[in-house]
Amino acid sequence: MTTAIRRADRRISPVFLALVAVLAVSGWAVWKGTLGTYTGVAVFAFVTSGWLVSLCLHEYAHARTALHSGDISVEAKGYLTLNPLKYTHVLLSIILPLIFLIVNGIGLPGGAVYIEDARIRGRWRHSLISAAGPLTNAAFAVVCTAPFWLDGLSGVPTAFRFALAFLALLQVTATVLNFLPVPGLDGYGVIEPWLPPALRRQIEPYAVFGLLAVFALLWLPEVNQAFFGLVDTVLRGLGVSRPDTYFGQELFRFWQDPQFP
């Protein structure tokens, strides 16, 4: 019985498989241009499903690292199934990230994997668990930009190129933001085990406001400009130009196209 439960707790969720299917089908539609004036809809589906797949992988990386670090409770909580519904918090996981995705073109995984810290031994393991998520986004960005930095864009349809570039931008923004040493973000989780216990207790009550504070600061033009300047620098290093991401975002916002019915 225990074995059966363990297998079920690790079985890949049909929800995740459905997201992968949407990613594949919409990617094919963007590549082939089969939707004509509705190409932006296909780009929207491709980028959104790709973003949700990366969110699942981000949280799975946290959970899998925690499992190997001693917290076997992640299994029973369903975190190893890649089911996004297991990581969902309505405000932080859906509403705010969707607003920033549509309005500012910023990707930030809003899911949550709750780790039982008492089961984890050693500060390095705690830090690695926190770092595993954004490192997954970084790896996703490298994969998305592979055609760019490998000079493999010959024959790639323009719309697909732009869609990949915008999806890569979301991964880079997620990586940069998550590595900020702000309470409530993974960057703080990396350094938290190394802080004096008294300081950690003082900071703990404010952790819930960390993400909201970052969101608020990103509305400031100076902060927004500096942030995207850093993101653009990283993307250029991966072979992606600003026009690539700009037109990708324009296609993503298909409802703003005057030619859209």
UniProtKB/TrEMBL annotation:
One Gene Ontology molecular-function label: peptidase activity
Protein keywords: Cell membrane, Hydrolase, Membrane, Metal-binding, Metalloprotease, Protease, Transmembrane, Transmembrane helix, Zinc
InterPro entries: Metallopeptidase_M50B, Rip2-like
Biological process (GO), any one: proteolysis
Cofactor names: Zn(2+)
Source domain of life: Bacteria
Transmembrane segments: 12-31, 37-57, 90-115, 127-150, 162-183, 203-220
Bilayer topology: Multi-pass membrane protein
Predominant localisation class: membrane
Localization per record: Cell membrane
The name this protein goes by in its record: Site-2 protease family protein
Entry similarity comment: Belongs to the peptidase M50B family.
